[in-house]
């Protein structure tokens, strides 16, 4: 049995964030969701497990008790089982705490061959979890992966970088971060959602995993960004008149 | 003084980062992987350039563990890495090996010799997080955040650092430019899922040609539909551009996409849905079918 661990994060939906006129940020009405890019990571973990002899895709998340819905959602996406590093340490955790918690959880899961993270989470998008877990576990890491193949006991990963496409080979165990285009993340069907409730979930205490560590990157303040756009509806009675008005406006702006 | 270590796999960006200054005039050391990079970094503000002579097939990220040991040995207080895919990977690994704070893609970076402060965007650019790290920290910084300076010729030293031999390079193929550089274009036409068929791309291409610009897209157009290469999509996980004019055709304007164009001088939106988020994030809005308006816009631009 080789487990392929997909890490996922329950995040607040950015569409529900309200920014006040004074720049205040109201997160109180934000609903939770599995970070969108993590859905691709879960789908790729399932695909990769299918390429291995006796591969099993499993999920791992670090979340407060309020993140419980993430488990059923993730399990409905094809994972065999899930691990939950549960605790309020997740609230206000920085990347160091998150990586420590996940790395320690991974140490406690048997037969882990591959850990897959998304490139970044849709709330912070810091793109640090995979490399940081790899450093803590002192195992190889490959980021920006857009294609994975298996060669004996190694992963061959194709990466999309700024100036090139790079292919690297790394032996198990390895930590990967995948780009969202690596595989589509289909919406789970009703049958998959129903069966997700019956799949096993193992809980860890995040307080035990984090072992007293405190955030190293400390947040002093969060402020909303203002959208300083004119928002002028320039639509006229006819498309021709509209286009004429727009061209005139753009000329005045000096951008044509 | 603790000193600052600079690295980027993009030598131009590394040269910019060497211009970072602090009130205490902390010494800047630039890390280079080969001779040409060491030479290029020797006159842009760094006091010392350390060349590790890694060779052209090196995978910079795989040196993270030995660079972390080098940081400990030299006692640097801050490591600034260029915010490229490789740089972000290396920086996060360094922070892991060093067990220190990490700030990704930061702006307004300041360092007083003991505390690192910076700002970064969260939630697709809706929220600015003001953060600080006490003691050693690693940050990534993108283009344009630190101005390049010229300085006296640096001392060039060599150091022997080891790569993680478990990560083996199989192949590296340089990107071949298809002649479209959306990051360099002053006028960009963006297409979204409002396009009903691939044929309608031609409308956007004609408009971009008339504007002397380039065609970009939302993530869905590149990834789900495959109508344009993935290096043309804009947003938090794609390209971030700063054109004079961004003309969004059939783009709803999700926050992830808007992150990629937030610094455009003027944004124009054409969409059937007057309640689409793009309408609250554009300077000029046209409520209507892009098929009706795009050919007229093209003709108007040609007639200028």
Task: Please report the total strand number of chain B as a whole number.
Answer: 16
Q: Could you name the CATH class of the largest domain in chain B?
A: Alpha Beta
Give me the Rg of chain B, rounded.
Answer: 22 Å
Q: Which fold name is given in CATH as the topology of the largest domain in chain A?
A: Rossmann fold
Number of helices of chain B: 8
User: Strand count, sense and closure of the main sheet of chain B?
Assistant: 7 strands, parallel
What's the total number of strands of chain A? 15
Chain pair sharing the greatest interface? A-B, 86 and 93 residues
Averaged pLDDT of chain A: 95
Please tell me what the overall shape of chain A is: globular
The first-to-last residue Cα distance of chain A is 62 Å
Number of domains of chain A: 2
Percent helix of chain A: 25-40%
Series of secondary-structure elements of chain B, N-terminal to C-terminal: EHEHEHEHEEEEEEEEHEHEHEEH
CATH architectural category of the largest domain in chain B? 3-Layer(aba) Sandwich
Low-confidence stretches of chain A: none
Rg calculated over all Cα atoms of chain A: 22 Å
Tell me the structural class of chain A: alpha/beta
CATH architecture of the largest domain in chain A: 3-Layer(aba) Sandwich
Shape of chain B: elongated
């Amino acid at each position: 049995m080789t487990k392929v661990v997909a890490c996922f994060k329950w995040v607040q939906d950015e569409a529900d964030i309200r920014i006040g006129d004074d720049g205040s940020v109201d997160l109180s009405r934000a609903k939770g969701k599995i970070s969108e890019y993590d859905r691709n990571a879960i789908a790729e973990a399932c695909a990769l497990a299918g390429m291995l002899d006796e591969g099993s895709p499993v999920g791992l998340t670090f979340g407060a008790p309020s993140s419980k819905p993430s488990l059923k959602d993730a399990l409905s996406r094809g994972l065999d089982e899930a691990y939950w590093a549960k605790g309020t340490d997740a609230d206000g955790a920085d990347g160091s705490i998150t990586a420590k918690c996940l790395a320690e959880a991974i140490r406690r899961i048997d037969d882990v061959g591959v850990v897959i993270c998304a490139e970044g989470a849709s709330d912070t998008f810091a793109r640090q979890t995979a490399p940081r877990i790899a450093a803590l576990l002192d195992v190889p890491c490959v980021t920006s992966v857009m294609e994975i193949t298996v060669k004996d006991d190694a992963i061959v990963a194709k990466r999309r970088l700024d100036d090139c496409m790079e292919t690297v080979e790394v032996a198990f165990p390895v930590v990967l971060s995948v780009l969202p285009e690596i595989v589509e993340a289909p919406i789970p069907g009703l049958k998959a959602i129903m069966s997700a409730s019956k799949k096993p979930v193992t809980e860890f205490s995040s307080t035990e995993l984090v072992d007293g560590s405190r955030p190293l990157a400390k947040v002093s303040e969060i402020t909303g960004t203002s959208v300083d756009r004119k928002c002028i509806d320039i639509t006229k009675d006819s498309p021709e008149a509209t286009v004429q008005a727009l061209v005139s406006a753009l000329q005045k702006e000096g951008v044509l | 003084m603790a000193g600052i270590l600079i690295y980027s796999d993009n030598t131009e960006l590394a040269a910019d980062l060497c211009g970072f200054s602090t009130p205490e005039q902390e010494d800047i050391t630039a890390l280079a992987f080969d001779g040409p990079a060491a030479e290029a970094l020797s006159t842009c503000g760094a006091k010392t350039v350390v060349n590790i002579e890694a060779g052209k097939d090196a995978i910079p990220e795989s040196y993270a563990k030995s660079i972390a040991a080098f940081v400990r040995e030299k006692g640097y207080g801050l490591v600034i890495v260029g915010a490229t895919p490789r740089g972000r990977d290396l920086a996060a690994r360094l922070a892991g090996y060093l067990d220190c704070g990490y700030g990704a893609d930061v702006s307004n970076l300041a360092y007083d010799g003991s505390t690192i402060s910076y700002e970064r965007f969260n939630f697709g650019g809706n929220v600015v997080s003001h953060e600080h790290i006490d003691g050693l920290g690693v940050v990534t910084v993108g283009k344009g955040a630190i101005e390049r300076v010229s300085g006296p010729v640096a001392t060039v030293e060599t150091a022997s650092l080891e790569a993680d031999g478990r990560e083996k390079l199989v192949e590296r193929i340089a990107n071949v430019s298809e002649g479209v550089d959306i990051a360099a274009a002053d006028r960009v036409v963006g297409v979204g899922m409002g396009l009903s068929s691939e044929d309608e791309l031609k409308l956007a291409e004609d408009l971009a040609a008339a504007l002397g610009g380039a065609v970009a897209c939302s993530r869905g157009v590149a990834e789900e539909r495959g109508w344009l290469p993935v290096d043309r999509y804009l947003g938090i996980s794609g390209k971030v551009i700063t054109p004079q004019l961004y003309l969004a055709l059939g783009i709803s304007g999700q926050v992830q996409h808007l992150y990629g164009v937030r610094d455009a001088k003027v944004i124009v939106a054409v969409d059937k849905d007057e309640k689409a988020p793009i309408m609250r994030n554009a300077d000029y809005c046209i409520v209507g079918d892009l098929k009706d308006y795009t050919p007229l816009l093209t003709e108007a631009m040609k007639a200028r």
